[in-house]
Amino acid sequence: MVEFNTNWRPAVTVGIVSILALLIGIGIALGLAMRLPVTLVTHMLITISLIMSSVILWLAYNMYSLSKITYLLDRNAFIIHWGFTREVVPMGDVQRVIAAADIMADLKFSGMALPNWWIGEGYHPALGSVRFCSNASMKRQLIIVTPDMSYAISPADVDGFVEAFRMRFEMGPTQSVQAAHLAPAITRWAFWGDGVAHTLIITAIVLNALLFAVGFARYPVLHGQLVLHFDTSGIPDRFGPPDQVFAPAIIAFQLFVVNLLIALGVYSRGEKLAAYLAWGGSVIVQLFFLIAVASIAFSV
To answer: What is the pTM of this model?
Structure first.
């Protein structure tokens, strides 16, 4: 089996520059958040920092995967290594190999729009779906065409790959190979495609962010002691400092995290309904805490 490597350095450079830019952005946002008075602007700066941190994790994972792309070739199969994933393409299924530059005018790509970052799926009117596993410009990519799926690749030695592929293609396979997409079990988890689960979790996250937003928005006008509790007659019987306006949001967030982890464990055992109920309950909890925050924040 012959192995072909890629020129991964340009793609990794793009990833490093992007991560550094985000780190600078996070530093600026948090620096401003610490210097400015506690207001809704502070909440927005912290939220932006959290979003940028999530993007950094995504970039780091994909940068690692792009740096590990290799292509293995013999008479029976063409194998793409991409990070922790392997794509096995039977040589018997291959119809032809074409230069991506010849069809790029009609080739639509829906992945991440960064230079030399070709991660995701595309579509061509004549070829159908195209899976991109490459880290070079479109002009240096090849398309392996099969009836069900085409694959965009970027071997560093394009001419050498084309010649080696042609030789093995003409000789024909010696045995049948099953097409396969081999990836870690966690990436094949049904949860990633479960719209109901995503909707419930995102709703709970948005409500919790709103909890914090109310606290940050009202904090500048809160002075003295806050009313934290009323007795059965509606008379305030417990008070606290202004920063207690954030306590319900913090508690609600902790409950959300615990609930999320428990529900994920239940979901992994195939008990989807129980997980849905848990995530739905988390949404209700966030709503109750939102009412509590509003009561505290607007008690003055």
So the answer is: 0.81
pLDDT in tens, 68-124: 999 999 999 999 998 889 999 999 999 999 999 999 889 988 877 789 999 889 999
Average pLDDT over residues 233-253: 72
- Say if 269 falls within a structural domain: yes
Buried b (16+ CB within 10 A) or exposed e, 38-60: bbbebbebbbbbeebeeebeebe
Query: Is the residue at 272 inside a domain?
Result: yes
82 membership: H or E segment, kind and range: strand 77-82
Residue numbers of the domain that contains 250: 190-297
Instruction: Quote the tokens at residue 278.
Output: 């848990």
Burial 93-126, CB ≥16 within 10 A → b, else e: bbeebeebeebeeebebeeeebebbbbeebebee
In a domain, 225, yes or no: yes
8 Å CB contact between 279 and 197: yes
